Amino acid sequence: MARFSLQLELLRLENLKLASAHETMVSRGPSHFLALLFSTLTILCSLTAPAARSQEKTGGIVVHVQLEDKSSYDQGAAVNLYTFAGAPVGVATTVGGQAVFGNLPKATYALEVVAPGFERFTQSVEISTNGDQQYVYVMLKPLAGFKASLAQSGPPILAPNAQKELNKALETLRANNLEESKKYLEKASRNAPSNPDVNYLWGMYYAQTSDWGHAQAYWEKAIQVYPRHSFSLAALGQLSVQNGDYPKAIEYLGHAVDAAPSSWRYEQQLAQAYLLHNENDQAQKHAERALELGKDRANSAQLILAKSLLRQGQPALAQKALNALLAQHPSDSDSQEASKLLSSLTHPEPEVAVAPTPVPAMTAIPEVKKPAPVASSYIRDELLPPAKWMPPDVDESMPAVESGAACPLQKIQDETGKRVRGFVDGVNRISATEALEHEVVDRYGLTTKHETRKFTYVESLQEIKPGMYRVEEYRNGTMGLDVFPERLASLGLGSLVMIFHPAYRDEYEVTCEGASRWHGVQTWQIHFRQRADRPSRLREYSVAKQVFPVALRGRAWIAADTYQVVSLETDMVAPIPQIRLKAEHISIDYTPVKFQKGNEELWLPQNAELFFDLAGRRIHRRHHFSNYLLFSVDEKQKIAEPPMNIESDAAPVAQPKF
After folding, report:
1. What are phi and psi of 629, to 5 degrees?
2. How far apart are CA 114 and CA 81, in angstroms?
3. According to the model, what pLDDT value does residue 373 have?
4. Looking at residue 457, which CATH number applies to its domain?
5. What is the domain-level CATH number for residue 141?
6. Residue ranges of the alpha helices (H) in 175-229?
7. Exposure of 317 by Cβ count < 10 A (0-12 exposed, 13-18 middle, 19+ buried)?
8. Could you tell me which of 216, 284, 393, 578 has the fewest CB atoms within 10 Å of its CB?
9. How far is CA 282 from CA 254, 267, 376, in A?
10. Does any domain span residue 115?
11. 378/429 same-domain check
């Protein structure tokens, strides 16, 4: 059985340390350790690079990575050290803008620093005498079109007392109790006047009193302190829409989407701004992305999509979007507008003869009017952080499907099983660049901790005997937990696709819900649930020496033409009270990677998001994978243009945007 894991170490107050990941797995000593397993992980060896052993190791290299303004680059750059002949010596990820290599023999080395959005940095470094300590200061230069301000570290974290006051301010703002909100904000401001969250909520306070000048000033102050403050960027974008400044709205909302790429709400707002600016292709693109991310929660995006399609001369697709919207029983305003528009499509005005040659009537192109002044209830619903920090359960509602399409479930299972089996057979050794965002979220929806890391990721997946697989994963040359924030290691993210592997699929109840769309591509929407009479083999939680199997349920979108799994979401069948695991939600998007030699194409994870409510803590993590390398051909590959029209928010590092 394949072992794919997510390991988490929860330390007691003694804060005891462990020497290795193996000790974490067996949970030695008085500390309490928790290992979360995606299925079962087999660890054989580590990938640490050999350094010269014949020489005495005495020197060291300290690398400081900075932005052009000389502030530390805190996102976690990858620092690679090689011998002058090119043999690898070590790999490190900067912490606080610094990486250290110690115990190095006298020699000349080649240093390489890689950070997304910046030019690759290389420099030779010489350790010439015993005890020599070399300091290297790296000034990152952004690539063309990349704003270095967006590469800053996470927002400043509030002290506990200030955070408590801010949470109360947010709670009273949601209740529209402005008098109490002001009291709490004043207390928070005394402790942290420059904190972006504090300034953002001050802006929300003034917005709910319709004092837009003060609201704008506070939101602008928030993004001056932290340029990636998505709440303030979205608020400024919506304010620009309200003022009719659509280019500015597109700029702000585009930054909000970059800062929070999993937010369907920001994608929907950006689509609306593009529609108002008559950029209909972009409106279509972001409306479709909003629907993919938010499913039925982003139902209003169907109306934006329909209008953009009509403007591009695609009434049949517009009609599909309107039918999907009305099937979900939208709000009165959306329902009335969609019904009127649909009626104009299905019952066009009769032809009117004004000359010997009749002129056929045309379906009216929908006019997009400037939004009416916003109400305080809209501000609370659209601009405040959502009270529910985790996405809805997959069974809370079923995303809309197209009517009239017969679903060949058996063929879908058979063909998808072949694709997954081909993935297992074809992947010998894979490496990639992995970017990780880690957040701890409080019960009010505010981020209390934010970290980013970047890894050189290596995976090997092999079938060692029928029905049994071995997976090895390395990040920066190690399988230890120390490279991850809070020693929480998320492993085997691509393994959930094994649900459709012939060795596992009979363990799930599978139903086809109908035809749907993903990135504009026709897909089959498949629901699955662990069977009660079969063991749960793909995921388990291991606490000390006890194992808690996790039964999964979820939904997958499978391409109708290629039968590849393109997107997948899961939840647990039931909580695990013994380890205080209340909820877990995972979503993964897959993308085709074309390897030039051997003409091989594999579908591999591009983005993966994990949400946990575990032991009283709410954790959100986002992984992005790029620059895949297939070791068997030993050549770097890019995520290539797929054979179908797929759009993506892939990082701009050596990748096209789909």
Report:
1. -135, 130
2. 12
3. 55
4. 2.50.20
5. 2.60.40.10
6. 178-191, 196-208, 212-225
7. middle
8. 578
9. 11, 11, 29
10. yes
11. no
pLDDT at 225: 83
Q: Are residues 71 and 190 in the same domain?
A: no
Residues for the chain: how many in total? 658
Same domain, residue pair 341 and 472: no
> Which tokens belong to 11?
């330390």
- Give the per-residue SS3 of 463-477: EEECCEEEEEEEECC
Element (H, E) at 246: helix 246-259
Query: Terminus-to-terminus CA distance in the chain, angstroms?
Result: 35
Judgement on whether residues 509 and 551 belong to the same structural domain of the protein: yes
Name the residue type at position 378. Y
Bridge partners, 80 (sequence order): 91, 112
Q: Residue 344 above 90 pLDDT?
A: no
Contacts of 61 (CB under 8 A, 6+ apart): 81, 100, 101, 104, 109, 111, 125, 127, 133, 134, 135, 136
Q: Which of 314, 362, 371 is nearest to 337 (CA)?
A: 371
Would residue 43 count as lying in a domain?
no
Q: Are 76 and 185 within one domain?
A: no
Q: Are residues 378 and 430 in the same domain?
A: no
Does a structural domain hold residue 68? yes
Domain tally, the chain: 3
Q: Is residue 422 located within the same domain as residue 322?
A: no
What band does 26 get if pLDDT is binned at 50, 70 and 90? Answer: very low
Residues 6+ apart with CB under 8 A from 186: none
Residue 63's domain comprises 57-149
State CA 186 to chain mean position distance.
Answer: 34
Per-residue model confidence as pLDDT tens digits over 128-162:
888 888 989 999 988 776 655 545 456 677 777 88
DSSP 8-state secondary structure symbol assigned to residue 478? B
DSSP line for 107-153:
EEEEEEEE-TTB--EEEEEEE-STT-EEEEEEE--BPTT--GGGG--
pLDDT higher than threshold 80 for residue 632: no
* Residues 208-222: tens digit of each pLDDT: 898 999 999 999 999
Q: What does the radius of gyration of the chain's CA atoms come to, in whole angstroms? A: 26
d(C-alpha 295, C-alpha 278), whole Å? 25
User: Which range, of 139-153, 160-174, 362-376, 553-567, averages the lowest pLDDT?
Assistant: 362-376
This prediction's pTM: 0.63
Contacts of 408 (CB under 8 A, 6+ apart): none
Is pLDDT at 287 greater than 70 in this prediction?
yes
Residue reference for tokens 């998007």: 589
448 and 519 belong to one structural domain: yes
Q: Which residues pair with 102 in a beta bridge?
A: none
Most confident of 114-118, 191-195, 587-591: 587-591
Q: Which residue type, as a one-letter code, is found at position 657? A: K
571 belongs to a structural domain: yes
CA distance 266 to 386: 12
**147, burial (CB in 10 Å: exposed 0-12, middle 13-18, buried 19+):** exposed
Give the neighbor-by-neighbor strand order of the sheet with 98-105: 98-105, 57-66, 133-139
Q: What 8-state DSSP symbol labels residue 599? A: G
* Out of 83-87, 176-180, 212-216, 632-636, least confident range: 632-636
